[in-house]
Amino acid sequence: xxxxxxxxxxxxxxxxxxxxxxxxxxxxxxxxxxxxxxxxxxxxxxxxxxxxxxxxxxxxxxxxxxxxxxxxxxxxxxxxxxxxxxxxxxxxxxxxxxxxxxxxxxxxxxxxxxxxxxxxxxxxxxxxxxxxxxxxxxxxxxxxxxxxxxxxxxxxxxxxxxxxxxxxxxxxxxxxxxxxxxxxxxxxxxxxxxxxxxxxxxxxxxxxxxxxxxxxxxxxxxxxxxxxxxxxxxxxxxxxxxxxxxxxxxxxxxxxxxxxxxxxxx
Length: 266
Fold this sequence. Notes:
seven-stranded antiparallel β-sheet; Jelly Rolls; 20 strands; mainly beta; five-stranded antiparallel β-sheet
């Protein structure tokens, strides 16, 4: 395996920001909407990234495994809100069940915004979005996203912006159901928490040193994302705004860590 620190990629987006917030805290010439931690060969199926929004993202959906073609993986993802301006919101699912025909009509006339359930975004909010969930990220939000490493997105509605929509493909895979409450939780920044234990990846918030149970859960390759404090992986100090891959959790020095995320592929 190459060095543990993962390379980053800044992705320009029209809805991004020129002034990036902490932990990056820098000014960009073009608006940056995402910073990716490039998956290494040891964990190719998981992508972790930061998102920063200054405008609403499109109303969109990701397909399940096989729906975009034989052997093509789906895209389950999850969000941990890091910062949010007053009134910032996330749209996930619908207020009530919506038929495919009604969803099509609402996407065409723009009323789909009013059918979606808009959740207040607050630091510490965590949402798991199974593939097929219709969603949109609002303006004024910084979040960490952990996802299956595929970039297939079907746009249903984009507020009149001149980008391609994928209405037929989106409607073929979109769930018209309300978002399940159990997939949303508040995360205490001072407590350990298993955030995802799903079919594609496991995700934990770790405060301080891991106990024996968590070390046992991550005996294999895992990705570490410090949020506060630093960790040491194979002699490399990894700070907030960076991420690294470790062969096992037991080989990571957490003595200077305050809070981090740990991700493992299933």
